[in-house]
Specification:
There is one protein chain. The protein is built from 13 helices and 21 strands. With about 475 residues, it is of the alpha+beta class. The strands form 6 sheets. The protein has a 7-stranded mixed beta sheet. Strands 1-4-5-8 form a 4-stranded antiparallel beta sheet, with helices on one face. Strands 7-6-9-10 form a 4-stranded antiparallel beta sheet. A hairpin with a 2-residue loop joins β9 (about 130-135) and β10 (about 140). It is globular.
Length: about 475
C-alpha cells in the first residue's frame, strides 16, 4: 500500500467546537468535548474539552492537531494519547500555539505525536485507532469532524479497493538519488511534444515544458469557446460582481484591485504542441472591457514583451517561476503602492534549486523544474520585521486557507487583504505572490477562495482589497 497523508478538519476560527455527538453551531461539524464519561465504573461529569485530531500522516506515522482543557491549570499538562486496539502507540502534549486558536486560548495547544507502529485510514474509521486527551480524571476523544471523517472513509475505501493514488517512486528510490538532485545532476532527455499524460489532462510541450490541457475546467476547450450570447452574458455577470466589489470596498474606506492571472498555455503558447492563437475568448473580452478601469490590473500585459532569459512559468508546473511572480507583483504594486515598483524590479535572481511541479505526477515520471530564485539578502532589509500572525489550514480542500503577516520593516505602510488562489499560496517562495506581499507591506493577509468575505474585510479593515482569479476559472462567475 503506498504511503499517504490525510488531513482532517482544523479549527474554524469563528466556531467553538461543541460536545461530541452534538453539532457545532453554523457549520454542522461534530465537536470534541464530552459532558459525561465512565471512569472506573463511575459516572463523572467532565468539563468540555476542545480540540481536533487534524492530520494523519500514514507515511511518517504521525498525528497532529490541537487540544484545550479549560479546567487544566496549565494546558501543557494535557496528554494526548493514541491507541490501537487499546494499546498505547503514541503520546504527546501541547507544545505550540497558533494564531487561529487565540479566540479559544493563548496557551500552548497544538500537538504532534509519532506512533510506534503504522496505521491506516481503515484503522481510524473502524475505531481501532483512537486519539484521546487526558488530564487529571478527564478523558475526551478528539474528533475528526464530519468532513474529516468523510474524507477518511473515502481513503479507507480506496485502500480496501487497492485504488489509492500511487507514489511516483518509492521513498527508498527517492532518497537514493536525493544527493544527485541537490547537486543538480539531472539528465536532460528528449520527449516528443504532444505526449499526453497518463490521465490525459496534460501534455508535453517544447523546451521541456508541461502544459495543463484538461482537468475539471476542460482547459483547452475554453480557447475554442464561441463569442456568443452565453459568453457575453457570463462576462456581464463578471462586470456586475466587480462593480459590487468596488462599491463594497469604497463604502468601507478601502480601495479595490482586481487581476486575472493568465494560463501558462496563454503566456507560453509558442511552446504549446498545438496552435493557441491568444487568450481564451472570455479573458480577452474581460480585458477589453476593463482596459481603462482604474481598479483593474491586466494579467496579460506583464508578459506581452517578455525579455528575460528565464521563463515566467516553471517547466513542470502550472504556476509562476520567481521571475514570473516578480513581474506580476510589480504590476500589482504599480496600482497599489507605486513606490514599491523599483524595489520589486531590482530584485536579482541567481540562486538555483530543483523541484518537481504540480504537473509532474500526471506523467508518472520524476521530471524536475530548474528554479531560479533571489538569494536571501535581496530583500533582507525588509525581512527582519516579518511576523506570521495567522495560519489556518482546513484539512479537506484548500478553500478557506488563511495566512497573515505583519512587517515592522516593510517599505509600504499599507494593510492589504487578498482573496485569491494558489498563485499567492503560503508565501514560502518567491514564486508565490504572498512572498512578495509579506516582505513589502506592513500587514498582508491572504484568504484562499474565489469570493470576497465582507465579514473578514470588516474585521481586518484593510487599506486595499485584492481580488485574484485565474483564466480557467472564468467559466464560473464568483458570488461577490
Amino acid at each position: 500500500m503506498p504511503a499517504a497523508r490525510l488531513y482532517a478538519p482544523s479549527l474554524n476560527p469563528s466556531v467553538m467546537s461543541a460536545p461530541f455527538h452534538e453539532k457545532a453551531p453554523h457549520d454542522g461539524r461534530a465537536g470534541v468535548g464530552c459532558r459525561e464519561a465512565r471512569l472506573g465504573g463511575v459516572s463523572a461529569t467532565v468539563a468540555r474539552v476542545h480540540g481536533y485530531a487534524e492530520r494523519f500522516d500514514f507515511d511518517k506515522q504521525t498525528i497532529s492537531g490541537w487540544v484545550f482543557d479549560a479546567e487544566a491549570n496549565d494546558n501543557r499538562d494535557v496528554r494526548v494519547v493514541a491507541t490501537v486496539d487499546g494499546e498505547i502507540v503514541g503520546e504527546s502534549g501541547p507544545t505550540g500555539s497558533r494564531g487561529d486558536l487565540l479566540k479559544i486560548t493563548s496557551q500552548d495547544a497544538t500537538f504532534s505525536l509519532r506512533c510506534s507502529r503504522g496505521f491506516t485510514a481503515l484503522d481510524v474509521v473502524s475505531g481501532r485507532l483512537s486519539v484521546k486527551a487526558h488530564c487529571d480524571d478527564r478523558e475526551t476523544a478528539l474528533s475528526l469532524g464530519a468532513d474529516g471523517f468523510a474524507a477518511m472513509k473515502k481513503a479507507a475505501v480506496e485502500q480496501l479497493d487497492g485504488v489509492a493514488t500511487p507514489a511516483l517512486w518509492s521513498r527508498a528510490e527517492r532518497d537514493a538519488v536525493k544527493l544527485q538532485i541537490e547537486a543538480g545532476n539531472l539528465s536532460p532527455m528528449l520527449m516528443p511534444a504532444g505526449l499526453p499524460s497518463m490521465d490525459g489532462s496534460a501534455v508535453t510541450g517544447l523546451r521541456g515544458h508541461l502544459f495543463l490541457t484538461g482537468g475539471t475546467n476542460s482547459l483547452v476547450s475554453l480557447y475554442d469557446e464561441p463569442v456568443d450570447d452565453a459568453l457575453l452574458s457570463r462576462v456581464d455577470r463578471w462586470m456586475d460582481v466587480l462593480a459590487l466589489r468596488v462599491e463594497g470596498c469604497e463604502a468601507r474606506g478601502a480601495r479595490f484591485v482586481q487581476t486575472i492571472v493568465p494560463e501558462k498555455l496563454t503566456v507560453l503558447r509558442d511552446d504549446a504542441p498545438f496552435d493557441i492563437a491568444g487568450p481564451t475568448p472570455v479573458l480577452q473580452e474581460i480585458e477589453n472591457r476593463l482596459r481603462d478601469a482604474d481598479f483593474y490590473v491586466s494579467g496579460l500585459a506583464p508578459f506581452e514583451q517578455w525579455n528575460n532569459v528565464d521563463d515566467p512559468f516553471l517547466t513542470t508546473d502550472t504556476h509562476f517561476s520567481a521571475v514570473g511572480a516578480q513581474r506580476m507583483f510589480s504590476a500589482l504594486a504599480a496600482q497599489i503602492d507605486p513606490q514599491l515598483v523599483p524595489l520589486v524590479d531590482a530584485v536579482r535572481m541567481y540562486q538555483f534549486r530543483y523541484a518537481v511541479g504540480d504537473l509532474t505526477g500526471r506523467f508518472g515520471l520524476p521530471v524536475y523544474s530548474r528554479i531560479v530564485e533571489p538569494s536571501d539578502d535581496e530583500l533582507a532589509a525588509y525581512a527582519g520585521g516579518i511576523t506570521m500572525i495567522e495560519k489556518y489550514l482546513p484539512a479537506v480542500g484548500v478553500r478557506g486557507r488563511r495566512f497573515g503577516w505583519t512587517n515592522s520593516t516593510a517599505p509600504s505602510p499599507l494593510k492589504v487583504l487578498v482573496f485569491g488562489n494558489s498563485f499567492f499560496q503560503s508565501g514560502d517562495f518567491a514564486g508565490q505572490l504572498s512572498w512578495w506581499g509579506k516582505h513589502l507591506f506592513s500587514e498582508f493577509h491572504f484568504l484562499w477562495g474565489p469570493n470576497l468575505d465582507w465579514n473578514l474585510v470588516d474585521q481586518l479593515k484593510p487599506d486595499v482589497v485584492v481580488g485574484q482569479t485565474v483564466e480557467r476559472f472564468l467559466n464560473r462567475v464568483a458570488a461577490v
